[in-house]
Design a protein that fits this description.
- By secondary structure, the protein is mainly beta.
- It has helices at 60-64, 96-106; strands spanning 2-7, 10-15, 24-29, 34-38, 50-52, 69-77, 84-91, 110-111, 116-128.
- Strand 3 and strand 4 (34-38) form a beta hairpin.
- The protein is globular and about 45 Å long.
Length: 142
Amino acid sequence: MKMIAEMSSLFLAVGLTLPLPPMSVSAIDAKGVRYVMRTDRGRAAWFRDIIFAPRPGYPVEDRRLHHEGIVVIRLDIDLKTGNATYFTILKSSGFPNIDEVAVRALAKWRFKPGRWKQVDIPIVFTFHTPGELLDYSGPGHP
């Protein structure tokens, strides 16, 4: 799940499949067991249980100013429906508009019912040239 829009020689990327800096994310399953995973060790198990996951937009003003960052949001999930019911920003991008569009997109996410009570979702907002290594230093990055 990655959105890439060409902008001259630069690319705008918003997504979940971009390489993330090493960080821990976690989830709690339906039985109350917490799982912790490092983002540099592959995709978290709870991602395969996503049924519907619209991508967040990239606010025009933030694109214009080349604001970048990583937002980590914890979703509480209704076990009966799989819908997200409550959101907590665990890590802000440092830019309120970016954080807001991430929360709005995740509010529409749906998981397979009966599997997860809570999940952490990291989302990357960045500009980069294809093939270049992403630099996660600076504002909005750990």
